[in-house]
Design goal:
Blueprint lengths: L14 E5 L28 H13 L4 E5 L9 H9 L6 E6 L4 H11 L3 E5 L5 H8 L4 H13 L5 E7 L8 H11 L2 E6 L17 H9 L4 E6 L7 E5 L5 E5 L12 E4 L4 E3 L8 E2 H6 L4 H13 L5 H11 L12 H4 L2
Parallel strand pairs: 1-2, 1-10, 2-3, 3-4, 4-5, 5-6, 6-9
Antiparallel strand pairs: 7-8, 8-9, 10-11, 11-12
Helix pairs in contact: 1-2, 1-9, 2-3, 3-5
């Protein structure tokens, strides 16, 4: 393993986020441009064998953690087969999955048996009507049932990711906290940000991390734990009464580009070095063109070593100076990138 592989800002590549599909059973406006998106042709989506190959090469270059994403990863047929392949890879320390949870109840046991231990469930509200307004389809009870099924299947820790949008769901902060405390789930609150190009993001819709922390801490006193391994996106806080933890991702007001160790692989085989990237490098062309592992490894190494991404840092500087305009920055849509 090449433990010393670093980008131009001395950040190692430790975390590989793999999108297994761009398809989704929800239509959340902040993630997917409902009327504009063109699905990736199925023949262009990486096979499980191709994904495993890239993952194995990534581990040789220093990757320690793999997160499976989408779209919605659980709409990919036979996903447990991929999990079984990845869970056996030597050198991989952590395998996890991010899901909207709607299909989790029927798949939880198969996923756990294949080797999946940790999941993150995206859930922005506990209000059924608001849930339908956000997702455009699906039922809140299915997601809550999926979380319960993951518990029964022995997965853990289970985390819930909630994007906080001012004037829409920020009145549910304490409801989410109480749900997490009752069900032994870490809620991770995420500042609303300008993912993609068409989510109509405005800084006025972002509830700053400091405000989230203050509003929760006033009712449930907290103490800071810090970032997991020093590079996780969330800063964790423990309840003073010992009833668990929450995490807060201050992606807008407290950017963490300096510690970002995450790379991404899209469903159609593009290697991406930043959540806010405009483009990526085509690995699928190399893979299907017969390139040996050494060529793919050299390509990944070359792209990573040249990485200078610090979008969130620059965005915050421009926001504070009043010069930031999200429409000036064309980005890959979240539905393709996988978060």
């Amino acid at each position: 393993m090449t433990a010393t592989l670093q980008d131009a800002l001395r950040r190692p590549m430790r975390d590989l986020r793999i999108s297994v599909t761009d398809r989704c059973n929800f239509r959340c406006a902040y993630c997917m441009p409902f009327d504009e998106y063109k699905w990736i042709e199925r023949a262009e989506v990486l096979t499980f064998e191709e994904i495993e190959r890239v993952a194995r090469i990534g581990i040789d270059l220093g990757v320690e953690k793999i997160r499976l994403t989408g779209g919605e990863p659980l709409v990919r047929r036979d996903l447990e087969r991929l999990i079984a392949r990845l869970s056996r890879l030597q050198g991989l320390k952590d395998l996890t999955l991010t899901t909207n949870g709607a299909l989790l109840e029927e798949q939880a046991y198969a996923l756990a048996e294949a080797g999946l231990r940790r999941i993150n469930v995206s859930l922005d509200t506990l209000n059924p009507n608001r849930f339908h307004e956000i997702t455009k389809r699906g039922r809140l009870e299915d997601v809550l049932g999926g979380i319960a099924a993951a518990h029964r299947a022995g997965m853990g820790p289970i985390k819930v990711n909630a994007v906080v949008i001012r004037g829409f769901n920020d009145d549910e902060l304490l409801d989410m906290v109480r749900y997490g405390r009752e069900h032994r789930i870490e809620i991770r609150f995420i500042e609303y940000m300008d993912v993609g190009n068409v989510n109509d993001w405005k800084v006025s819709k972002t509830v700053p991390k400091s405000e989230i922390l203050s509003r929760i801490g006033a009712v449930y006193p907290l103490r800071e734990v810090g970032r997991d391994q020093g590079s996780a996106p969330a800063i964790d806080y423990a309840y003073e009464d010992g009833a668990g933890e929450i995490g807060i991702i201050g992606s807008v007001t407290e950017p963490f580009c300096s510690s970002c160790v995450r790379a991404r692989l899209t469903a159609d085989g593009r290697f991406i070095t930043c959540l806010f990237a405009e483009t990526g490098f085509d690995l699928k062309g190399l893979i299907r063109g017969g390139a040996p592992d050494t060529k793919i490894a050299d390509t990944l190494r070359g792209v990573w070593v040249g990485r200078t991404d610090r979008y969130s840092d620059l965005r915050w500087e421009e926001i504070r100076s009043g010069t930031y305009r999200p429409e000036r920055h064309r980005k890959i849509e979240m539905i393709t990138l996988g978060g």
